[in-house]
Amino acid sequence: MTWKFFEVTVSGKWVLAGEHAVLRGATAVALPLPDYSLKLTFRPSAENLRITPDSASDLLLDMISGILSRSGHEPAPPSGLLSIESTLPTGAGLGSSAALCVALTRWTGEALGIPESDWQEMARSLENRFHGQSSGMDVSTILAGTPITFSTARGSVPLNLKRLPRFTFHDTGLRANTSDCIAKVRELASRSPEIAARLDQGMREAAEMAREALIDFNQQGAPALKHLAESMRLAQESYAGWGLLPDAARKLQTRLLTEGALACKLTGAGGGGFLIALWPSD
């Protein structure tokens, strides 16, 4: 076990379609978001481990100790300075917790000699701390660094796209806890299973339509945008049915559509965060 100087920058992520339903076996379409990122830097020294920002110290010490214990090492952290710098907003659906888990996995995985083939599961286990039940989609997207489809059965499958439509990202100004959103969807399923099944099916269909539309856009360009917009509208209907589309997001969506967006949808757990807008090709 050697703790050398280490630095890594990982991107955020966003989901085009498949949220929530992915926890019940659906396939989702997810993409990295390099406009927002997290950088982890470790500088070894003779001093006890110091973590910046200080507000993250207790959380990171606990996570590092857990990694060491699970890999058969003494839980004492390495000596040096560990710094985290992030432009990823928390609770916004852009993968802030997943990015942290991936960065920690890459750092400790390399130092402890953990095979890269185990990193996805390692990062997913870390993310369970934040969400209670992680599908692995977010960490898989960030680790892949390329647009993927994801399901719990097949894992990540690269889409091999050379170009993407024009998407823009718009902050609703609201934040929501992923675990709370998951609990809200589960509560609906226990109260109204038929409605919940219909909403899940709608999200499944939206994800398949989105996958096909991205592939078509990669090959044909603008003609595929109609079906892509339809997939986003269908996905947004599921958010509304789950009770995860707040008024502020609806108002922002209306404004973006008035300005010429073809479609809008929330990304991530819902309840706030960011709206994704699709625009005509330039």
Q: Using the alpha-carbon principal axes, give the shape.
A: globular
How many structural domains can be distinguished in the coordinates? 2
Q: Could you tell me the mean pLDDT?
A: 94
Helical residue percent band: 40-55%
Q: Might you state the CATH topology name of the largest domain?
A: Ribosomal Protein S5, domain 2
What is the percentage of strand-forming residues?
A: 15-25%
The top level CATH class name of the largest domain:
Alpha Beta
Order of helices and strands: EEEHEHHHEEEHHHHEE
- Give the biggest sheet: 6 strands, mixed
Unreliable spans are none
Q: Tell me the total number of β-strands.
A: 9
| Structural class by secondary-structure content | alpha+beta
**N/C terminus separation:** 52 Å
CATH architecture of the largest domain: 2-Layer Sandwich
Number of helices: 8
- The whole-angstrom Rg is 19 Å
Spell out the blueprint of helices and strands.
Elements: E1 6-17, E2 28-44, E3 50-52, H1 57-70, E4 80-86, H2 96-112, H3 119-131, H4 137-144, E5 148-151, E6 155-158, E7 166-171, H5 178-191, H6 193-220, H7 225-242, H8 247-258, E8 263-266, E9 274-279
Parallel strand pairs: 3-4
Antiparallel strand pairs: 1-2, 2-4, 2-5, 5-6, 7-9, 8-9
Q: Which keywords apply here?
A:
six-stranded mixed β-sheet, 9 strands, Ribosomal Protein S5, domain 2, alpha+beta, Alpha-Beta Plaits, 22% strand, 8 helices, 44% helix, 282 residues, 2 domains, three-stranded antiparallel β-sheet
